[in-house]
Amino acid sequence: ELKVEQNPLFLSMQEGKNYTIYCNYSTTSDRLYWYRQDPGKSLESLFVLLSNGAVKQEGRLMASLDTKARLSTLHITAAVHDLSATYFCAVVTGKSTFGDGTTLTVKP
Amino acid sequence: DTGVSQDPRHKITKRGQNVTFRCDPISEHNRLYWYRQTLGQGPEFLTYFQNEAQLEKSRLLSDRFSAERPKGSFSTLEIQRTEQGDSAMYLCASSPRPGHRTDTQYFGPGTRLTVL
């Protein structure tokens, strides 16, 4: 059974700092997705990573994929309060398997 | 493009009752997914359709849960004989065919189920 593990599960950081969220998965896949969820809301797509070495950037967020290591990272640069949310990675192998999420809190 | 819609948004029911939820995907999307999410967890896959064909389903759907997408457009998720443990947010998502330039899942607002 495919397992998707994120770490850390909780992250509190100060504005202006950098940090990386890690997503490890247990089986071969060339499709990995990152989503954002605000409290009480549904999920919003952030990045789609479709091949080994793929790198996508949007604002202060950058995602990468290493299919050989079965690892994706979501890097946060110079965090701001608006980035506070829960971030999920998901691996699609027909069905979708999500990690448990990383809840990010950015403090002034 | 009005996005993915779900109905109802909230449902309160008594234990043992049956409930049915509806999902309307983005019109040109041929894949449709159902998930269940509880507080502090990631979405748990239930099933997915490509057009009207149900391609994969979790073990959960072999019991009291069933889903249909009869004409390849909207879908329904039914839970029979609800239990308190079924209380959760039920999410629907749709996506275009794999390889499409916007290949990702677009989520609806969810249906929050409370079983008393």
Structure in words:
The complex is a heterodimer of chains A (108) and B (116). By secondary structure, chain A is mainly β. In chain A, 0% of the residues lie in helices and 59% in strands. Chain A has strands at residues 4-7, 10-14, 19-25, 32-37, 43-49, 55-58, 61-66, 71-76, 85-93, 95-98, 102-107. In chain A, the strands form two sheets. In chain A, strands 2, 4, 5, 9, 10 and 11 form a six-stranded mixed sheet that branches. Chain A has a five-stranded antiparallel sheet with strand order 1-3-8-7-6, with no helix packed on it. In chain A, a hairpin with a 1-residue loop joins strand 9 and strand 10 (95-98). In chain A, 32% of the residues are buried. The model of chain A has no long low-confidence stretch (mean pLDDT 93). With 116 residues, chain B is an all-beta fold. Chain B has no helices and eleven strands. In chain B, a hairpin with a 2-residue loop joins strand 5 and strand 6. Chain B is globular.
Judged by helices, strands and strand pairing, the structural class of chain B is: mainly beta
Strand content of chain B: over 45%
In round numbers, the mean pLDDT of chain B is: 92
State the major sheet of chain B.
Answer: 7 strands, mixed
SSE pattern of chain A, N- to C-terminal: EEEEEEEEEEE
Radius of gyration of chain A: 13 Å
Helix content of chain B: under 10%
Chain oligomer state: heterodimer
Which H/E pattern describes the elements of chain B? EEEEEEEEEEE
Number of strands of chain B: 11
Counting DSSP H or I runs of 4 or more residues, the number of helices of chain B is 0
- What is the C-alpha radius of gyration of chain B, as a whole number of Å? 14 Å
Q: Strand tally of chain A, please?
A: 11
Q: Assess the beta-strand content of chain A as a share of residues.
A: over 45%
Termini gap of chain B = 36 Å
Low-confidence stretches of chain B: none
Low-pLDDT runs of 5+ residues of chain A are: none
Largest interface: A-B, 21 and 23 residues
